[in-house]
Write a structure and sequence with these properties.
InterPro entries: HprK-rel_B (IPR027597), P-loop_NTPase (IPR027417). The protein has 363 residues and is an alpha+beta fold. It has 11 helices and 21 strands. Helix 4 crosses helix 11 (346-359).
């Protein structure tokens, strides 16, 4: 396998010949449709369980993703290691541009992703790393929206009837936790960590990705609707921990929306009427909220802006760069933006979020 050429088409032909994809899974994310082809029945079963309500009957698709279950490829290419994101130190990815596309290698798992044009290929121990296959499929969905002119936001999203609210915050602020608290008050789920924002003449829309929220033990213990995600032995063990230690735990559970909140609660689009930016701390102070102008609060806007990363390839001929802050300011012109500051208070924030979804205001 180390003799693959730096040519996406030729590499794809080699892989399809060596690992014939005999199994399929069809998914539909509102109007976007994807077909997975793989040599692993186990992977199909795992992804069908994960995606649940988005599994569809066989149909024409926008994208076909091939996932080849095999040992990690040993590709003798001149890889460039990706600089870690701010605040991170571990180098997890390397990449190289190919004729016709790009290859990204996950340095920890050994998974390799090759994509460009009509090719979307995942190669390596796929079943063991099905979460990376999920991310790859969702990244294809994100690319489709960005090519239609959307902005990429780092936010969760919820909706109620004809209104939607995005939730952003710097790392660890609890946007997914807050989204689930608002759901417990009757809202629908739109997205966990990424939103694609479309600024139309008369309204702003937000689109989500089919990624289940990954919650920590503190979130599960403090929301009765999430009790089922935590095994009984974990519940007994973690409930004895101090609050600070509990929230700092690096232990996650996938929260299946339909299982926790009932069927039909995961919607992938909604109007984007508001944006809460979580700028709070575990200080014990009262939580406060105020409406802000994102053009004047670029420090807060940075929590919502999201770089596209290695898995986005701009359309042929376009320059590869992320939109500046000015573009986000323009994109949020019709959105009411609020800063939540002071102490962390999910119950109060959820109440305000639901009030906004029902009335269009937080008063």
């Amino acid at each position: 396998m180390s003799v693959f050429p730096l040519d996406l088409d030729q590499a794809a032909q080699h892989l399809m010949q060596d690992y014939p994809p005999a199994h399929e899974l069809h998914l539909q994310f509102e109007s976007w449709k994807v077909r997975l082809k793989t040599n692993s029945k186990e992977l199909v079963d795992d992804l069908a369980d994960y995606y649940g309500p988005f599994v569809a009957q066989a149909q024409e698709s926008h994208v076909t993703v091939h996932a080849f279950e095999t040992e990690p490829l040993n590709l003798d290419w001149d890889w460039t290691r990706k600089t870690p994101d701010p605040g991170k130190t571990k180098i997890k990815e390397a990449w190289v541009n190919l004729k016709g596309g790009r290859a990204v290698r996950k340095l920890i798992t050994g998974m390799t992703f090759l994509f460009g044009g009509d090719y979307h290929l995942a190669v390596g121990p796929c079943v063991k790393n099905s979460n990376q296959i999920i991310n790859f499929i969702n990244n294809r969905h994100i690319q489709w929206h960005l090519e239609k002119g959307c902005l990429l936001g780092h936010a969760a999203g919820v909706s109620f009837e004809d209104k939607g609210l995005a939730l952003a915050g710097f790392s660890g602020a609890g946007k997914s936790t807050l989204a689930l608290h608002i759901m417990s008050l009757g809202a629908h789920f739109v997205s966990n960590d990424r939103l694609m924002v479309e600024n139309k003449a008369d309204e702003t829309l937000m689109y989500g990705v089919a990624k289940l929220p990954r919650i920590n033990p503190g979130t599960a213990l403090n929301n009765p609707d999430l009790a089922s995600v935590m095994p009984a032995e974990d519940k007994e063990r973690f409930s004895k921990l101090p609050t600070k230690e509990l929230w700092d735990l690096e232990h996650k559970y996938d929260a299946h929306i339909d299982e926790c909140f009932g069927p039909g609660k995961f919607h992938l689009s909604a109007p984007m009427n508001g944006l809460f930016i979580l700028h709070w701390t575990h200080s014990g102070e009262p939580m406060e909220i105020r409406r802000v102008n994102p053009d004047e609060r670029r420090d807060l806007l940075a929590a919502f802006m999201k770089t596209t990363g290695l898995f986005y390839l701009p359309p042929q001929g376009d320059e590869e760069k992320d939109p500046p802050a000015e573009v986000y300011v323009e994109g949020l012109k019709k959105v009411a933006v609020y800063e939540l500051f002071g102490g962390v208070d999910f119950a109060k924030a959820a109440e305000l979020g639901m009030r906004f979804l029902k009335t269009g205001d937080v008063k």
